[in-house]
Structure formats: C-alpha cells, structure tokens
Amino acid sequence: MTLPEPVAVGVEALYEDDDLLVLCKPSGLLCVPGRGPDKQDCLSARAQQRWPGALIVHRLDQATSGLVLMARHIDAQRRLSHAFAERQVHKRYQAVVQGLLGTADGNWSEIDLPIAADWERRPLRVIDHAVGKPSLTRWRALAHDAAAQTTRIELEPITGRTHQLRVHLAAIGHPILGDALYADAATLAQAPRLLLHASHLAFAHPTTREQVALEWAADF
C-alpha cells in the first residue's frame, strides 16, 4: 500500500534575507526528515517549499520549540556552520522545571557534567565521568511557582551536546516538565509538551558581519 504524501503546512519566518532564514519551529516538528513515510514532514521540508534551496545549519530536538537558523545558499551554510562550531552563535532557552531551583536574583550558575551516549538505550544520553564529553550549561532562575513547585529558568548552553539541557537538568534533580525521555512519570504528566523553548539567537551575519539578535517568547 502506498501511503499519501504528508501535507505540510506553512512555517513562520521571524527573519529572512538573501542569505539566511530564522524560523519559528513548533514543538513536535522534526527539523529534518526521519525514517519512514510518516516522518517526512519537517521544518526543512516546509522551508524548502517556500524558499527553494534552504539548508539546515543546526537543529532542535523534535519536542523543543524555538528559533532555528537556516541558510539560503551553500556559502552562507558554510559560514554559519563554522560560527556554530566556533561557539560564535549565542543561544538562550527558557524552560519550566520540577522543584524550586535557585533564587531569582539574576545571577547565573553552571552545570558542568560530562555527557555520553547511552548505547543500550539510544538515543538517550547519560552523565558519564569516565568517557563523557565535557558539557557546560549556564542557568538562572527567573520565577518560582510555589503552589506548583516549579521554576521557570533561562538556559545558555556553552557546549552543544545532544539533549544537553534536558540531561543536565535531570541530573541535578530538576527535570523539565513534559520531558518524555528524562523526567519521571509525575513530571512528564505536568505538561502536555516539553516545556523547553529556544527563545534567543544572536550571531554575526555571514555576509555583512553585522550583529543579528532575535527573540521569540515561549508560549508556556
């Protein structure tokens, strides 16, 4: 039996020019196609329908919403990919986590724990001090909800490991609400989706070298 092609709906661009796009990815949408006909609808496919030739530069987890940078041509992709590799792209996220974490005084703290693949439970990641890769996350508390026993936090990943923010927060005992991979059942049930959102993106434009800084507020 031949399955019908998935019907792709539009994708919103927060910024666009001849060199790049900054797109608003909803939670639940893949960044690139997955395996199987049911996983072909994705951010890159939707973008290429509207902007032919658009190229992926980086990705967000399927469950994470937020800003995604794409290139309009191969030279811009090369320059932007280099900027990511050299940690010249500034990213911040917002999340809501289980428990009352920190104090909302504006000060940043760090989670410095090495992350490795959990080969027996792929695609999960684990903290592994023997073979894990160095992984660093900065965070600060924004607000506490004493009734719900949750904390809204801002996150800044210094390194870019797979599932880094989710693994780090779970490792310190404050998993993200709605996290189907790293939260316990009660924390998972507290939200209809993963409450993790890429809210801020700043980088040097690959052609003009002017600074581009964009914000998209979380809807949770």
TrEMBL record:
Q: Which Pfam families match?
A: PseudoU_synth_2
InterPro entries, per the entry: PsdUridine_synth_cat_dom_sf, PsdUridine_synth_RluA-like_CS, PsdUridine_synth_RsuA/RluA, RluA_PseudoU_synthase
**The Pseudouridine synthase RsuA/RluA-like domain covers which part of the protein?**
19-171
Give the similarity note. Answer: Belongs to the pseudouridine synthase RluA family.
Q: What is this protein called?
A: RluA family pseudouridine synthase
Species classification: Bacteria, Pseudomonadati, Pseudomonadota, Betaproteobacteria, Burkholderiales
